[in-house]
UniProtKB/TrEMBL annotation:
Keyword Transferase: yes
InterPro entries: CoA-transferase_III_domain, CoA-Trfase_fam_III, CoA-Trfase_III_dom3_sf, CoA-Trfase_III_dom_1_sf
UniProtKB keywords: Transferase
TM helices/strands, residue ranges: none
GO MF annotation, one: CoA-transferase activity
Protein name (record): CoA transferase
SUPFAM superfamilies assigned: CoA-transferase family III (CaiB/BaiF)
Species this chain originates from: Novosphingobium colocasiae
């Protein structure tokens, strides 16, 4: 870590922590991005000749990808020929000087490079190694290939999304990948605390499937408890399928709203907001079970009211009467919303090539920990010389030889 980087990260909880990052796509880079935000030095090792495949995911300008930049700010890049003996030696040397090693290849891939946990723990017994995969390192699915939605499919979660009589609909956000990344960073931090107590590193196994299944609320219990009248919970369109009403998505004048009046008290407040006290005397809506049984009729009443006024008026009345609700914004609207910008939820970054654009900001606020200044996402192999010379102590002429032989790619 350079003197400048040390100064920037010195007051962060992971200051002085060095991470070997052999991840790509989203799940792994999310985990290491979380560690970078907490002050860790991230050495992202990319394999020649092309590096992380997301470098080629749109939007791309002058060879630089917004997709890659979002996930890899605050990191350094070393690009090597991982198949060559000298490239493998560089990796083993990095294992010796790193605190954490994160990878998200299919199970067995990293082992064929000689970097499985049994091997790396012999090199560095204090090392914490985290592997993120589709289905985990054990079990009958362990060796099956998979990405985000595959984990969602096996978890049963995708069966819960969509219209009741239609096809399952996968979410258009990276639920499985980002969840796995967050769980991985959480597991790594727990392993670090354990290391301070024992002096030993350990292996952390995280999967997309495990994360997706953990996102269920009550569906697995409802599906398996004896005597349940809901033996196989399924998708329910725009309305909640958990016996609560009104809880769902409702059409307004120009946009849709989420309204979650899940208790009797909340329904009273919704009726007041609508100016429809008569709803409280309607036996179809007198109790939650009655509302759930008549949720289609109730949705018609709510949508009739929403469409009779402007969306701004609806927001004002719902908020005034403390009804849990929100207008459904487009992505572009969310990126420009004052609340998201003020909190840094939507973070505007400046990239030397792509210019100014919004990325998801660090999602945790601390009272005693500030934000670490994040360096721009690196070009492929941009930090190779610095890492080899300053971190590993390779002589300059040796670095030049490795670059000349194609073992190390980039500057």
């Amino acid at each position: 870590m350079s003197a400048t980087d040390q100064t920037k990260a010195s007051n962060m909880p992971l200051a002085g922590c060095r991470v070997l990052d052999m991840t790509q796509y989203v799940a792994g880079p999310t985990a290491t991005r979380m560690l970078a935000e907490l002050g860790a030095e991230i050495i992202k090792v990319e394999l020649a000749p092309h590096g992380d495949p997301t470098r080629f995911h749109p939007f791309i300008k002058e060879g630089r990808s917004t997709y890659y930049v979002q996930q890899n700010r605050g990191k350094k890049s070393l690009c090597i020929d991982g198949k060559s003996p000298e490239g493998r030696k560089i990796l083993r040397d990095l294992i010796q000087v790193c605190d954490i090693f994160v990878e998200n290849g299919a199970p067995g891939v990293i082992g064929r490079m000689g970097l499985d946990y049994d091997s790396v723990s012999k090199i560095n017994p204090r090392l914490i190694m985290c592997s993120i995969s589709a289905f985990g390192q054990t079990g009958e699915l362990a060796n099956a290939p998979g990405f985000d939605w595959c984990g969602g499919a096996y978890s049963g979660a995708l069966s819960m999304i969509g219209e009741r009589n239609g096809s399952p609909m996968p979410p258009q956000v990276a639920v499985g990948d980002v969840t796995a990344g967050l769980l991985a960073s959480n597991g790594i931090l727990a392993a670090m605390l354990h290391r301070t107590q024992t002096g030993r590193g350990q292996f952390v196994d995280v999967s997309l499937l495990d994360g997706f299944f953990f996102l269920h609320d009550a569906a697995p219990a409802r599906a398996t408890v004896a005597g349940s009248d809901d033996p196989d919970p399924t998708r329910n369109g725009t309305q909640a399928g958990i016996g609560l009403a009104p809880v769902g998505v409702f059409k307004g004048s120009a946009r849709h709203f989420v309204i979650m009046a899940a208790t009797d008290a909340m329904f009273v407040r919704l009726s007041d907001a609508m100016g429809e006290s008569s709803l409280l005397n309607d036996e179809r809506f007198a109790t939650n079970s009655a509302r759930a049984a008549n949720k289609a009729a109730l949705a018609e009443e709510i949508e009739r009211w929403l469409c009779s006024i402007s969306d701004d008026e609806a927001c004002e009345l719902l908020n005034k009467h403390r009804v849990p609700s929100a207008p459904i914004l487009s992505v572009k609207e969310a990126c420009a919303h004052p609340h998201l910008l003020e909190r840094g939820t939507a973070e505007v970054i400046e990239d030397p090539v792509l210019g100014s654009f919004v990325v998801p900001g660090f999602p945790i606020r601390f009272s005693e920990i500030g934000r670490s200044e994040q360096r721009p996402a690196p070009n492929l192999g941009a930090d190779g010389s610095e890492i080899l010379e300053d971190v590993l102590g390779y002589p300059e002429d040796e670095v030049k030889r490795l670059q000349g032989n194609g073992v190390v790619v980039g500057s």
